Amino acid sequence: MEENRYFQYLAGERKGEILFFDKIEEEDGLVFISFKDGSRCNKEFILPLNERNWTNQLMAEVSDTKNIWRFKEEWVGRQEEKRAKNADGENVIVQPFIEGRKKITPIPPNFVKVKFDNIDRRIETPTPKTSHANDPVWITLEKSKKIDTEINMSLVISLPSKSLFNVIKESFENGAVKAIEYIIENLDDTKIKNGLSDALYAAYEEKESPPPPPPPPPSRLIKEGKRPPPPPSIKKSKITANEDG
Questions:
Q1: Which of 48, 60, 138, 243 is least surrounded by CB atoms within 10 angstroms?
Q2: Which residues pair with 34 in a beta bridge?
Q3: For the chain, first and last CA: distance in Å?
Q4: Residues whose CB is less than 8 angstroms from the CB of residue 103 and which lie 6 or more positions away in sequence, other chains included
Q5: Which pLDDT score, from 0 to 100, does residue 57 have?
Q6: How many whole angstroms separate alpha carbon 17 and alpha carbon 70?
Q7: pLDDT at 17 exceeding the cut of 70
Q8: What is the mean pLDDT of residues 40-47?
Q9: In Å, what is the CA distance from 156 to each residue of 153, 180, 204?
Q10: Would the CA dihedral through 13, 18, 22, 28 be positive or negative?
Q11: Distance CA 166, CA 174 (A)
Q12: 40 CB burial (10 A radius; 0-12, 13-18, 19+)
């Protein structure tokens, strides 16, 4: 029976939490460690077992659930508020409160004998794509001229919480940039392709609105440079009143 492997979060809102190893996967040239809870992490962000030089990794492999990383927290430059009575006997502040800054010192676990193979030796590669070499549709499209076309696409993806993003941004050098890189590298290609598929169907099947009717042809008189005759005038009849007497 294969023994369990354990991985501990070293940063973020899940800091200190221990996850159980599930499998190792390779996708687009990247190696990911998947865990029993359904999450996964890029191997580049995981500190190997017995490695003590923690810089900006998100997780670390540990030997068991007790021999783990611990964190000593202390305040530097913190001063509590102090009060004293002045000459008038009033209780006044003589030392205002100074918060200082919190210093976190990581304490690595004890060294252990390595009993597992290197992570890269257990990579599970995805099933290769089906060949379309003899498909007439693919052959036709492969030879066709491509046109850059803008399409509207809606995509639902799983993202880390905003609070975790802010923690990484503030805790690590170039944290925001690396967090976005991590999200891009861990995007589910299936969701992207499904969203793109729906957008392409909408783009190709959208009905084009009929063209506007052509303007009416110009009048023959105007075309020949002649002025059209004025509208007929209404003649007013002159009424003469007969005066009696």
A1: 243
A2: 23, 40
A3: 140
A4: 73, 74, 75, 76
A5: 86
A6: 11
A7: yes
A8: 90
A9: 10, 16, 22
A10: positive
A11: 12
A12: middle
